[in-house]
C-alpha cells in the first residue's frame, strides 16, 4: 500500500510528543559531548539497541550471548535470533562509522542490506561473506551483481527525479532459490524502497524530529525489506544524525519503541507518529539514566587507579570494562594481550566495583556496578 504523508501536519496532536522528544534528545547529546564515558556509553548502546530490536520482533537474545558472539567466544552454537542481533550490531556500527549522508545513498542502502555478522580488520568493520555465497556458482553471482547494479541505477534516477517509480519496473529476474537472498529483489521490493526514499526526500522541509518519525513509520508501512524491520528505526536515527540533531551519538530508537509499545497500536498515521516520537523521547531518557550510572562507575573505578604504576594495565582494563556491559577473563586477556592470571589479579583489585554475576567457579562473567 502506498504511504501518504499527513498534510497538513496535525501539530495540535503532535506538539506534546514532539517537544518531549526534542528536549530529551538534546539533553542526552549535550551531556555526551564532554562526558569522559561517552565512548563507553556508545559502545554499550550498540549492544542494547541490538537486543531491543530483536525484542520488538518477539525474540529474546541474552546480552551475554551477544557480547561473547561479538568477541568470537561463543559458549554455545549461535541461534538464528543471535545471528540477527549480530547483524543489527554490525549495521549500527557501520552507520556510526560512515559519513552522515551515506545511509541514504543508493550505495549506502545496498551496503546496509548486505551487511552480515561483524568481523574486524584492524579498526575497520567489514561485513563477512556467508559461506553459501562463497560457494555459489560464478555465473549466478555475476547475475546477482548485475541485478544489484540495475537497482542502484534506478534508485539514483528516482532520487534525482529523473524517472518515476511506476515507469522503472523491469521484468523480475529469475534465479535459483539457493542463490537468492531472503529479501525482496523483485519489482515490489524495489518500488517500495524507492518510494521510501521519496518519502524521506519529501520530508526535507519538515523539522528533523518529525522527518525521522515519518521515515520510521513509512518503513513499517511499506516494508521495503520485510526480513529487516529493525532497519527502519536505525535509519530514523541516522536521519537525526544527518540533520544535525545528534552530533555525538546515534539515537536509540529501538530501545525507546520497546519501552513505549504498551497498549494497542494506534490505527491512524497521527497516532503512530505520536508513538514514535514518544519512543524517541523514551530512548533518550533511558540513555540519560544509563549515562549517569556509567559515570558513577567511572568515578568509582578511577578512584582505584590512584597510586598505580605508569606501566600498569589497570587503566586499560577500566576502559574495557566501560565499553562492555559484560566481560570474561578470556575476553579481557585477548583485548589487553596479557595473561588470564594477570586479568584475574586486576579484577580482584577492582572488587567490589567489579563483581562476578554468575556465581560459578568457572566460566565466570564480570560487570561493573555503580553501587
From TrEMBL:
Residues 186-305 form the DUF1612 domain. Residues 114-126, 174-183 have a biased composition (Basic and acidic residues). Residues 113-140, 157-188 are annotated as: Disordered. Residues 314-366 form the HTH DNA binding domain. This is HTH DNA binding domain-containing protein. It comes from Pseudoxanthobacter soli DSM 19599.
Amino acid at each position: 500500500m502506498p504511504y501518504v504523508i499527513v498534510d497538513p501536519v496535525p501539530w495540535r496532536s503532535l506538539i506534546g510528543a514532539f517537544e518531549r522528544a526534542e528536549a530529551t534528545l538534546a539533553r542526552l547529546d549535550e551531556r555526551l559531548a564532554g562526558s569522559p564515558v561517552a565512548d563507553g556509553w556508545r559502545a554499550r548502546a550498540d549492544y542494547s539497541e541490538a537486543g531491543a530490536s530483536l525484542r520488538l520482533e518477539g525474540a529474546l537474545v541474552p546480552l551475554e550471548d551477544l557480547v561473547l558472539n561479538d568477541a568470537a567466544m561463543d559458549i554455545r552454537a549461535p541461534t538464528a535470533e543471535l545471528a540477527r542481533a549480530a547483524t543489527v550490531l554490525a549495521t549500527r556500527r557501520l552507520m556510526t562509522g560512515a559519513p552522515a549522508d551515506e545511509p541514504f545513498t543508493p550505495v549506502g542502502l545496498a551496503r546496509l542490506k548486505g551487511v552480515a555478522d561483524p568481523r574486524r580488520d584492524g579498526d575497520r568493520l567489514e561485513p563477512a561473506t556467508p559461506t553459501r555465497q562463497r560457494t555459489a556458482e560464478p555465473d549466478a553471482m555475476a547475475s546477482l551483481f548485475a541485478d544489484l547494479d540495475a537497482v542502484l541505477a534506478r534508485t539514483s534516477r528516482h532520487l534525482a527525479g529523473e524517472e518515476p517509480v511506476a515507469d522503472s519496473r523491469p521484468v523480475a529476474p529469475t534465479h535459483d532459490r539457493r542463490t537468492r537472498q531472503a529479501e525482496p529483489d523483485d519489482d515490489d521490493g524495489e518500488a517500495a524502497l524507492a518510494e521510501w526514499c521519496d518519502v524521506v526526500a519529501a520530508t526535507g522541509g519538515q523539522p528533523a524530529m518529525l522527518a525521522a518519525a515519518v521515515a520510521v513509520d513509512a518503513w513499517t508501512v511499506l516494508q521495503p525489506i520485510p526480513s529487516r524491520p529493525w532497519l527502519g528505526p536505525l535509519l530514523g536515527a541516522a536521519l537525526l544524525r544527518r540533520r544535525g540533531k545528534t552530533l555525538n551519538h546515534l539515537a536509540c530508537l529501538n530501545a525507546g519503541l520497546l519501552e513505549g509499545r504498551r497498549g494497542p497500536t494506534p490505527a491512524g498515521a497521527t497516532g503512530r507518529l505520536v508513538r514514535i516520537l514518544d519512543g524517541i523521547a523514551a530512548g533518550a531518557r533511558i540513555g540519560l539514566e544509563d549515562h549517569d550510572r556509567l559515570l558513577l562507575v567511572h568515578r568509582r573505578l578511577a578512584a582505584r587507579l590512584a597510586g598505580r604504576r605508569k606501566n600498569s594495565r589497570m587503566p586499560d582494563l577500566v576502559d574495557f570494562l566501560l565499553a562492555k556491559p559484560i566481560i570474561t577473563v578470556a575476553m579481557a586477556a585477548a583485548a589487553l594481550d596479557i595473561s588470564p592470571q594477570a586479568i584475574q589479579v586486576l579484577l580482584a583489585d577492582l572488587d567490589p566495583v567489579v563483581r562476578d554475576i554468575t556465581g560459578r567457579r568457572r566460566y565466570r562473567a564480570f560487570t561493573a556496578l555503580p553501587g
